[in-house]
Design brief:
This is DUF4327 domain-containing protein. It comes from Acaryochloris marina (strain MBIC 11017). The chain is about 50% helix and about 0% strand. The protein is mainly α. The chain has one domain. It is globular, with a radius of gyration of 12 Å. The model has no long low-confidence stretch (mean pLDDT about 90).
Length: about 70
């Protein structure tokens, strides 16, 4: 049995959750702060977040609440 491939947003979600757990980010911080921590990938990640109808002012907590990531 092969493991399921993790969606890029799922991978980012795990990384952001880890940063929240370590108190480097707060759940109330805006999503744009993620870009400060991932500057080399931010252009792609921002486009993906916008595709999933997030704004950069949304709180990180709303991003962490997503249970499944599926492209349409």
């Amino acid at each position: 049995m092969t493991p399921a491939v993790l969606h890029p947003m799922g991978k980012l979600q795990r990384q952001v959750q880890s940063l929240v757990n370590s108190q480097k980010l707060k759940p109330t911080d805006s999503l744009w702060k993620v870009g400060l921590l991932f500057p080399d990938k931010w252009s792609y990640l921002k486009d993906e977040l916008i595709d999933f109808e997030f704004s950069m002012q949304d709180p990180i907590a709303s991003f962490l609440e997503v249970e499944t990531w599926e492209d349409e």
